[in-house]
Design goal:
The chain is α+β, with helices and mostly antiparallel strands. The protein folds into five domains: 18-193, 3-Layer(aba) Sandwich (Rossmann fold), CATH 3.40.50.300; 206-290, Elongation Factor Tu (Ef-tu), domain 3 (Beta Barrel), CATH 2.40.30; 309-373, Alpha-Beta Plaits (2-Layer Sandwich), CATH 3.30.70; 386-493, Alpha-Beta Plaits (2-Layer Sandwich); 497-606, Elongation factor 4, C-terminal domain (Alpha-Beta Plaits), CATH 3.30.70. 27% of the residues lie in helices and 32% in strands. Strand 5, helix 6 (154-165) and strand 6 form a beta-alpha-beta unit. The chain is globular, with a radius of gyration of 29 Å.
Length: 611
């Protein structure tokens, strides 16, 4: 195949033997375990190196038993038709807070394994991820997992899958990640049903960056999927959107370790190392093209991230601010859904205003900063993004309560509303309705999927689910309810800015925006919590919650009292009174000039306040 036509034919055949697919499912439906069996069956990982959750390389993923990051790996499968196939598998997270990871993985695939737990049936996030895959025209292969369990409802859940995607019963693969059932059937279906990648191997290079990581020795490593053309080691490449140009020092494929290659062709998934040290110079969703023969337009990547929860992250010591900035930049490379910008606080100094996809996402970022970058941080009270309209006709985006204009100049404030889908058993309907209505929710639809599974749809403010909603939902449904949500729109609400004051001084890190009806009860709870948490001082501390100048809740921490009368043995009582009066005057003066030190753990504990 020395001539050009032969070479082109060879590349086309090569693409014919590539399959790119991801695994999508609800949390805890067995994605990682099934991925382990696929890696074992294709001998991608040797028995000696094999361990549970092989693709989950973070300690925090193993400890919690959840997937946080998408993981790409290349497998080779010898099909019974005599051909060898290259299978690029991406294992994705299941939790609603990491749906952005799923959207990025879907953009790099032609097919998806839709995994459903036979003992639990279709859950809310299963439906959400399925719609995401259908929007990208992915070929869906339904897989019924955990069929070997005693509690498996094979017929019932098969009917649910047929109703959901309209497939035939024989299209559903019965499998068990734990027992290794149906693994060959899944691989055969991936080869037979998922289309080979389309693309022109002779066109200018077009590769989509779908993920990236930072290596302290080698700089930024970008993961990409080639749509058109080919990429060779040593070639000069350009990042389409940033306009930066670099040499491809190393390219290769992703197995358990990175495997260097000289050339990668259209349809393949791989990595590129260019020596980039600055995280800002590479963007997930960007297009890699050749400097010599560039493509005319970038690839339309996946959707832009929309943070739902905002919170301030501050270093415990102010001199650690630059280290924290560096750590946040490296973390953002690995988690493109993290958004941050610098801000300052009177109470906490310099830090960052961060956007997260949910409370679990916030918790994971905090944990990763601590473990991976040795950064201990303080997190302020989380809140959502609001829209404010002033009487002058200005339209403002409010990400922090302190951004809210003076109430006298406000026309209205709008808050984001969500459409929440909850799938549960009928016996929990009453308790779930009460929980949602307490959170200012309104039921819009109730549908019985089967006799013992009901889907409830609510419209409610996003701010109400930020803190403890998911935990309480799991608690009242004994773990049987599943939850998913989408942003619907912004709606006008009677919101007020709640300030927390210590000895009349506002603590900006504890300021929050709350609905007027809930302001008094929320203020009382924060004041009581602070009374428990704040250490006593030599002077009285007044803890107050206020809306503007109006105090709506108050708690008092009494002063530590030194026993000034200990040296008085007997004698006239007036001598003791003089000493106590002198102490009283000193405490009054100390209260006027004393400042209250708020321990770091206090900010974290306040977040745990529940109704």
């Amino acid at each position: 195949m020395s001539n050009g036509n032969g070479s082109l034919a060879y590349l086309c055949v090569l693409m014919e033997f590539i399959r790119n697919f991801c695994v999508i499912a609800h949390i805890d439906h067995g994605k990682s375990t099934l991925s382990d069996r696929l890696l074992e069956f294709t001998q991608t990982i040797s028995e000696r190196k094999m361990k549970d959750q092989a693709l989950d390389d973070m300690d925090i993923e193993r400890e919690r038993g959840i997937t946080i990051k998408s993981h790409a790996i290349q497998m080779y499968y010898a099909h019974e038709n005599g051909n060898n196939y290259t299978l690029n598998l991406i294992d994705t997270p299941g939790h609603v807070d990491f749906s952005y990871e799923v959207s990025r993985s879907i953009a790099a695939c032609e097919g998806a394994l839709l995994l459903v737990d036979a003992s639990q049936g279709i859950q809310a996030q299963t439906i959400s991820n399925l719609y995401l895959a259908l929007e990208h025209d992915l070929e869906i292969i339904p897989v019924l997992n955990k069929v070997d369990m005693e509690s498996a409802m094979i017929e019932e859940v098969s009917d649910q899958i047929i109703d959901l995607i309209g497939c035939k019963k024989e299209d559903i693969i019965h499998a068990s990640g734990k027992a290794g059932i149906g693994i060959q059937d899944i691989l055969d279906a991936a080869v037979g049903r998922i289309p080979a990648p389309k693309g022109d191997p002779e066109a200018p290079l077009q590769a989509l960056i779908f993920d990236s990581v930072f290596n302290s020795f080698r700089g930024v490593i970008a993961y990409f999927r080639i749509l058109n053309g080919k990429l060779s080691k040593g070639e000069k490449v350009r990042f389409f959107n940033t306009g930066k140009e670099y040499f491809a020092d190393e390219i290769g494929i992703l197995q358990l370790d990175q495997v260097p290659k000289k050339t990668l062709h259209a349809g393949n998934v791989g990595y590129i190392i260019t020596g980039i040290k600055e995280s800002a110079e590479i963007k997930v969703g960007d297009t890699i093209t050749s400097q010599e023969n560039p493509c005319e337009s970038g690839i339309d990547g996946f959707e832009l991230v929309k943070p739902m929860v905002f919170a301030g992250i501050y270093p415990i010591e102010n001199e650690d601010f630059e280290d924290l900035r560096d750590s946040m930049g490296k973390l953002q490379l690995n988690d493109a859904s993290l958004i941050f910008e610098p801000e300052s606080s009177i109470a906490l100094g310099f830090g960052f205003r961060c956007g997260f996809l949910g409370m679990l996402h916030l918790e994971i970022i905090q944990e990763r900063l601590s473990r991976e970058f040795d950064q201990e941080v303080i997190t302020t009270v989380p809140n959502v993004s609001y829209q404010a309209y002033t009487k002058k006709g200005e339209h403002l985006h409010i990400n922090t309560p302190n951004d809210l204009p003076d109430p006298t100049s406000l026309e209205k404030v709008e808050e984001p509303y969500i459409r929440a889908q909850i799938i549960t058993k009928p016996e929990f309907i009453g308790a779930i309705m009460k929980l949602c209505m307490d959170k200012r929710g309104m039921m819009t639809k109730q549908t019985y999927l089967t006799q013992d599974r009901v889907e409830m749809t609510f419209e409610m403010p996003l701010a109400e689910i930020v803190f403890d909603f998911y935990d309480r939902l799991k608690s009242i449904s004994r773990g049987y309810a599943s939850f998913d949500y989408q942003i619907v729109d912004f709606r006008a609400s009677d919101l007020v800015k709640l300030d927390i004051r210590l000895n009349a001084e506002p603590v900006d890190a504890l300021t929050s925006l709350v609905h007027r009806d809930k302001a008094a009860s929320f203020g009382r709870r924060i004041c009581k919590k602070l009374k428990e948490l704040l250490p006593r001082q030599q002077f009285v501390i007044a803890i107050q919650a206020s809306i503007g100048a109006k105090i709506i809740a108050r708690e008092t921490i009494s002063a530590l009292r030194k026993d000034v009368t200990a040296k008085c043995y007997g004698g006239d009582i007036t001598r003791k009174r003089k000493l106590l009066e002198k102490q009283k005057k000193g405490k009054k003066k100390m209260r006027q000039i004393g400042t209250v030190q708020v321990p770091q753990k206090t900010f974290l504990e306040v977040l745990k306040i529940t109704d």
